[in-house]
């Protein structure tokens, strides 16, 4: 790592303490809203990354970006809680710009694509309120994750948009707890949105002993 990158990396740890989980992670499955802007950050932590992005335009940009980083791959799928459901995806700023896709569960995707799930112990989502669909479709895999990071609304911003409380209700019985909740800086339509990080209780107990 160059001196410039070292200084930037150290500064980020001070300015963005919420990224602490990256220091305790071996790999990330990153779902949605992805043009690869986090690729360099993940590379600084030497993480394996599986990107999943359904938008063809974003996916094209993403694959170009991550080509420069070792251990990062991308798949173009629309994750949900059921397989093979006809779904509509908005792909641009114009509400009329949409495409039709078939959905897939994350648990199905990793089998179909022969993904080595042992490489990944964190899940990052930016799916515009569809978090519960992704989580339900990954139910068989959640026990493998130590961290889950998502961007979620405080209140139901639009019909069908899940909230922070909804995600809490889903993850708490599965031994996850909130360890960071900060207002999101990225632009999202309407309401108050937060970047929320959950960790498994077992990890928190181990950390408290060290």
Please describe what this structure looks like.
By secondary structure, the chain is of the alpha/beta class. It contains seven helices and ten strands. It has helices at residues 3-15, 39-44, 56-66, 106-112, 131-137, 164-171, 201-209, and strands spanning 27-31, 48-52, 72-75, 78-79, 86-90, 98-104, 122-125, 147-153, 176-183, 193-200. The strands form two sheets. The chain has a seven-stranded mixed β-sheet, with helices on both faces. Strands 4-6-5 form a three-stranded mixed β-sheet. Strand 1 (27-31), helix 2 and strand 2 (48-52) form a beta-alpha-beta unit. Mean pLDDT is 86; it is low at 205-210.
Topology:
Blueprint: H1 3-15, E1 27-31, H2 39-44, E2 48-52, H3 56-66, E3 72-75, E4 78-79, E5 86-90, E6 98-104, H4 106-112, E7 122-125, H5 131-137, E8 147-153, H6 164-171, E9 176-183, E10 193-200, H7 201-209
Give a short overview.
The chain has 210 residues and is an alpha/beta fold. 29% of the residues lie in helices and 26% in strands. Helix 2 links the parallel strand 1 and strand 2.
Arithmetic mean of pLDDT? 86
| Structural class label | alpha/beta
- State the distance separating the first and last CA atoms: 27 Å
Q: What overall form do the CA principal axes indicate? A: globular
List keywords for this structure.
single chain; 210 residues; alpha/beta; seven-stranded mixed beta sheet; three-stranded mixed beta sheet; 7 helices; disordered C terminus
């Amino acid at each position: 790592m160059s001196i410039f990158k070292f200084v930037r990396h150290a500064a980020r740890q001070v300015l963005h303490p919420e990224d602490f989980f990256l220091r305790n992670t071996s790999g990330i499955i990153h779902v949605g809203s992805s043009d690869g802007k986090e690729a360099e950050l993940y590379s600084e932590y030497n993480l394996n990354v599986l990107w999943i992005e359904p938008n063809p335009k974003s996916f094209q940009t993403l694959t170009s970006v991550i080509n420069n980083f070792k251990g990062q791959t991308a798949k173009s799928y629309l994750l949900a809680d059921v397989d093979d459901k006809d779904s509509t995806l908005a792909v641009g700023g114009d509400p009329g710009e949409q495409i039709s896709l078939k959905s897939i569960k994350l648990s199905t995707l990793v089998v179909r694509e022969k993904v080595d799930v042992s490489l990944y112990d964190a899940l990052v989502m930016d799916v515009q309120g569809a978090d519960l669909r992704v989580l339900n479709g990954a139910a068989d895999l959640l026990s493998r994750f130590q961290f889950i990071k998502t961007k979620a609304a405080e209140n139901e911003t639009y019909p069908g948009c899940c909230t922070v409380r909804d995600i809490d209700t889903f993850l708490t019985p599965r031994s996850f707890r909130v360890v960071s909740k900060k207002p999101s800086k990225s632009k999202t339509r309407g309401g108050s949105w937060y970047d929320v990080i959950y960790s498994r209780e077992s990890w928190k107990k181990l950390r408290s002993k060290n």
